[in-house]
Amino acid sequence: MFAIVRTGGKQYRVAEGDKIAVEKLAGEAGDTITLGDILLAGEGDKLEDVSKVVVSAEIIAQAKSEKVIVFKKRRRHNYRRRNGHRQQMTLLRITSVGAAKKAAKKADAAPKAEKAEDAA
Prior knowledge:
Blueprint: E1 2-7, E2 10-15, E3 19-23, E4 32-35, E5 38-43, E6 46-47, E7 53-64, E8 68-74, E9 79-85, E10 88-99, H1 102-119
Antiparallel strand pairs: 1-2, 1-5, 3-10, 4-7, 5-6, 7-10, 8-9
């Protein structure tokens, strides 16, 4: 199964086991996160309902990307400025792409609501 997710203003096509580099996300190496903004999901040429799909990923590392050189120059004015920039990024391993287990969540939520009614 595959999904197209949006994070950091960019879109990524992911499947279970893929490794991707995205804009910096909060967390440390080893943490598990859920990518929330799912645009499309499916298997082969069959599409799934995106509201029922969950994409989980494990943070491999927090790193920096390749250095980009910023060079400014104004002709005939003896003006040259050289600067570099390395963007912060997060390396992710996609652990699962699949249907959410909403039935289990509803079952867990129902007893809590009943306990609240009993206490009142």
